[in-house]
Every structure is written in C-alpha cells, then in structure tokens.
Amino acid sequence: MKISPQLIIGFLFIGVSCSDSTDDPAAAIIASLDKAPAPATITEFLQAAEHGQTAGLYAGLMAHPEWARYSDDRGMTALHLAAMNGHADEITLLLANGADIKSQNKVGWSALLFAARDGHQAAAEVLIKNGADANAAASQGAQVIHLLARKGYTDMAELMVANGVDAKALDAGGTSALFFAATNGHAEMTSWLLQQGLDPNATDKGQSTALHGAAFSGHVETIQLLLDAGASALARNTDGETPLHNAAQGGHLQAVQALVNYGADVDAQDAYGATPLQVAERGGEKGSANEGRTEVIDYLKLKAGA
Q1: Is 278 a member of any domain?
Q2: pLDDT at residue 306 in the model
Q3: What is the pLDDT of residues 149-166, one digit of tens each?
Q4: What does the DSSP 8-state code read for residue 92?
Q5: Which of 52, 71, 110, 268 could pair with 87 as two cysteines, CB 3.0-4.6 Å apart?
C-alpha cells in the first residue's frame, strides 16, 4: 500500500506529541504545530523559511529532506533565509533535519552573519548553540562583530563575545569594530568596545583611525569618547588628513570644536598642502552639502594661525 507524504507527516506529528520533547527543541516545536500540506515546489519551501511558516517548512522537510541543503543560484539556502528574517524555530527545524550550518552564499555570507546584520539575537543564539563559527568572515572580510558595531547592537555583541566572537577582529581592510561603531555614531557600542580593550589609535590600511571616521560623520559623542580614551587628535591617514580635516570637510562645527579643544592643529596640512580651513572653504567632496560649513570656516578663522 502506498502511503502519502501527508499521512506520514500526520503520523510524525502524533508520535512527537506523545513523546517527551523537553530536552529536544526541535521536537518541542513540532509538537506545537498544526498539520500543513507540504510545499509543492522548492520555491514555496524557501518562502516558508523566509516568512516563518513553521508548519509548512516542516512538512516540506518531511516530504523532501534534500531541500534542507538546497541552495539557489545565489547560494542562498532556507537556513540563510530563516536567519536573515530572525526565525529561530525554523532555524532549529532546519538544523535538526540536515541543514548545513557552515553553508555560505556566493559572497561568503553564513546564516550567522545574516542574523547578526539585522540584530536577530534569538536566531543567532540558536546558530551559535548548534556550532556556527562565531568568527567566520564573508568574502569582504566582514565578521559578526563588525556587523553588530555598524548597527550598534551592544547587547547582542556582549552575547556573541561571551560565545567566542573576537571583539578585536579586523576586516579585510584592516578595520576594527570600533571604527564602525564610532563612525556610525553608536556611543554605547563605542564605549563597550573600548572597555573590551580595543585601541582608540588603531588604524586601517589607509591609516585612518576611529576618530577620523567619527569626525567625518560629525558624531560628537563618539568623538568625545575616543578622545577621553586617548585617541590622538593629531593622527594622520595616508592622505595626510587629521580628524580635524575630516570634520571641517563635513561642516561639523561641534566636532571641529571638540577636536580643537583636545589639541588638534588648525594649521596642519594634508598631503596636498591643504589646512582644515582650506578644506572647508573649498567645500569638501564634490557635490557635498554646504550646510554648517560657513560656521566652521568662521570658527577656524578665529583660531590663531588659521
């Protein structure tokens, strides 16, 4: 007698519901599910993973176990899609049914990187507990800590570091998480990373420091945190720019003032002979906004030697 996949699924649901699922997260999830028809196509299965359709996903796994490891032309799997949308239950079921936790898409992104990028802490915890490499890097060199720093997910960063993530890791450009946190104005994350021992004067491959990044973006609070932690207001990148050049270029008056108060040299010349005042006067990058630059120019003109 031929038994349909749907009938098999029904038997599985009954069997799990009668068993002790206390110590098996996947079994506990399955026991709570209503029966659902299996997705007819792999596309529908991937959509179930993406949209958190738990019963449909499980039915698909039972009818087509091979779908757990299927990847599309971008290298995306159901596990990637569940992770990037924060579906912890779907991740649990996929891993219990053969999904490859080490799988990467065509640009080297793992499920854990997707979960970290969008701050899905519960999803990331499931992946870490199931053996995800906490320090695996995408092809661009991005690691979990860099993605969390960009978004300012401090609580999640604490959890990830407690589970083996290296807070001091550098990406392919030699850039630390501190640079990303400070540049994006995440004061809490910047403070926490400094407490983890990251060097406020560390440079990337272009010799820029976190202070250069924060100054360019005009984030006064992270500028102040870096300066208080010992960041040099006189640091120069490969273009000879100091953080003051970067702040002046962006027309960030409060950033300029904070840097000058910490000893930034208003007469410093970059590799092309330009001072911060001259950078501000020429408008910074082509097409950049001029708002705030007039105040910066007036302020720098008042400083001795400017």
Answers
A1: no
A2: 52
A3: 999 999 999 999 999 999
A4: H
A5: 52
Three-state secondary structure of 123-155: HHHHHHHCCCCCCCCCCCCCCHHHHHHHHCCHH
φ, ψ dihedrals at 190, nearest 5°: -60, -45
Q: Residue written as tokens 């006189």?
A: 234
Of the chain, the end-to-end C-alpha distance in Å amounts to 92
300 within a domain of the structure (yes/no)? no
Contacts 24+ apart (CB under 8 A), 126-131: 126/25, 126/88, 126/91, 126/92, 126/95, 127/83, 127/91, 127/101, 128/160, 128/163, 128/164, 130/95, 130/101, 131/101
Question: Is residue 37 one of the residues assigned to a domain?
Answer: yes
pTM for the structure as a whole: 0.84
Tokens of 301: 């003109």
| Residue 1 falls inside a structural domain | yes
Residue 190 CA, chain-centre distance (Å), reads 14
Domain membership of residue 128 as a residue range: 1-133
DSSP 65: G
